[in-house]
Design brief:
Rossmann fold; 2 domains; six-stranded parallel sheet; 14 helices; 17% strand
């Protein structure tokens, strides 16, 4: 791997204290973890270090306690679930710095795993306070960052620690960075990007970055309406940011100059009301009535997009093509996701997808496991697509 060290470079860790930054920020219903995806992502690194005899000290944030101790945001709540996923004992330590935490760490034996209390109980965490980073660093001898999803924030536990202890990428972080490098760092062309979602305004930087990097830019979701409107299409009552028409045209011009083909829907599924299973019509984009809303890409355009993917070697996907949470407006997203999954499985396509809505859409299509890589990171994945340096990653690659 270029630029950063991994667990393969750690050397002998038996009896050494290793601070491991994980993302344990899991959804809860009362005291029950409702989705353990992030815990399962953390497991390979924690198990490997424990098996090698390290004293494994897990750092993580949980919720937004704003520097206050809040029992409802204690990582004690997650410790049982992590124990179940790891299949080995996990201790809980009531702070992530200070003399009490140091005394508790001193009682641990080689191979033990302990979760330290929520880093955000300290106001200095989000400010990347040097004193807090020093205090955390005092508990360990080595630092492993395994939380790509928190890498876009320069916090004490994600960035500060990497400058105070020998720093390495965990297995989940390593897999994420390798996949992202394959998708946009040094991808095999032709490259396609699917960028969907409600608003152009939230994905402006992504769109500007993509037109210079990919061969095909597929725009879906509500933001496609803004581009259609900019090109003179009457989009009726569709979600549309009319004030961004000039920006949309500038992006289309930039794409032309970069030889990037932009794909906008030419047939669409419309309805007069936005609710599950209303009466719908499938029409050419120029036939949308004044009282109708565009809520999905039509079947002809979806099939054509599938044909585009068949000519590509790499795909990056962020955002759905339609209002996928509301049936039947998930059809285009599901159909194109299944095409991408089949191409990936046959070995023709490297497919990388990320972001919360995207993961939900791929799960709905039943194809998450068939993509080359699915990132659970939201903000970090978007900022990486925008071409921004991620502080947590940059700190590893010194």
């Amino acid at each position: 791997m270029n630029g950063f060290r991994t667990l393969d470079d750690l050397g002998e860790v038996r009896g050494r204290r290793v601070l491991v930054r994980e993302d344990l920020n899991v959804p809860m219903d009362g005291a029950r973890v409702t989705d353990d995806t992030r815990l399962r992502a953390a497991a390979p690194t924690l198990a490997e270090l424990s098996d090698k005899g390290a004293i494994v000290l897990v750092l993580a944030h949980f919720g937004r306690p704003k520097g206050e101790r809040r029992p409802d945001m204690s990582l004690a709540l997650v410790t049982h679930a992590l124990r179940d996923v790891l299949g080995r004992p996990v201790t809980f330590i009531d702070d992530c710095q200070g003399p009490d935490a140091a005394a508790a760490v001193a009682l641990l034996a080689p191979g033990d795993v302990a979760v330290l209390e929520n880093t955000r109980f300290h106001a200095g965490e989000e400010r990347n306070d040097p004193a807090l980073a020093d205090a955390m660093a005092a508990l360990g001898e080595l630092y492993v960052n395994d939380a790509f999803s928190a890498a876009h924030r320069a916090h004490a536990s994600t960035e500060g620690l990497a400058h105070r202890l020998p720093a390495f990428a965990g297995r989940s972080m390593q897999a994420e960075l390798q996949a992202l490098d394959k998708a946009l760092g040094s991808p095999e062309h032709p490259v396609a990007a699917v960028v969907g979602g409600a608003k152009v305004s939230t994905k402006l930087d992504v769109l500007k970055q993509m037109v210079g990097k990919v061969d095909h830019l597929i725009i879906g979701g509500g933001m496609a309406n803004t581009f259609l409107f900019a090109r003179g299409v009457d989009v009726g009552r569709s979600l549309c940011e009319r004030d961004l028409a000039d920006t949309a045209l500038a992006i289309l011009d930039a794409a032309d100059r970069a030889n990037c083909t932009v794909h906008l829907p030419y047939d669409v599924v419309v309805a007069r009301e936005f609710r599950p299973n209303p009466p719908t019509r499938t029409v050419n984009v120029h036939e949308v009535a004044a009282d109708e809303m565009i809520l999905d890409v039509g079947p002809n355009a979806t099939e054509a997009l599938g044909d585009v993917l068949k000519t590509c070697r790499t795909l990056v996907w962020n955002g759905p093509l339609g209002a996928f949470e509301t049936p039947p407006f998930d059809m285009a997203t599901v159909a194109l996701a299944r095409t991408a999954a089949a191409l990936t499985q046959s070995g023709g396509l490297v497919s990388v997808a990320g972001g919360g809505d995207t993961v939900a859409a791929l799960n709905q299509a039943g194809v998450s496991a068939d993509f080359s890589f699915v990132s659970t990171a939201g903000g970090a994945f978007l900022e990486w697509m925008e071409g921004k340096p991620l502080p947590g990653v940059a700190a590893l690659s010194r």
